[in-house]
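Deliverable D4.2, example record:
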Amino acid sequence: MGTMRLNDVVAEIVGNVIAGCIINKRQAAVERWDDIDADGQYLAGIDGVVGRIDGRARALRVKAEKVADTAQAELPFQLPIAVAMDLDGTTLVATRSLSREGFKRAIAIRSQQIAHDRRALREWQQALNQADRFWTKHPDWTFGQCLDAILGATDKVVVTEKLS
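Output generated by the structure prediction step:
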């Protein structure tokens, strides 16, 4: 059992990624597990179980009840067997047990999640568009080099504007 806080171990691993290392998350967790103190291992274990519950609940789909002749009815939609009833996904409820209000709440939460995903996608697209002007001239550059060039171009614009 280690003596480091879970957050510190995670910060070191992420720091390695930021420094340019390619990290296998599972391998890094195994390699650093013994560095983590007892409280951190407990919390990580709980988080791991929560993640597995979430993954399994999202993977399973609601199916129609089998009819007497064992033919499987087809539904015109596919829904997860359980849905989150809050934005952070902490509270799961079986889809079959949702009331109308609960169903509407699940839809509202999913809409918010999709809106967040769309915003994140727009940010990625905007970053690509900005970097493409440098990648066109320097296809071997990393995104970090493009960022530095973008920041340099921005600094020049700011300086030019201030001089005017």
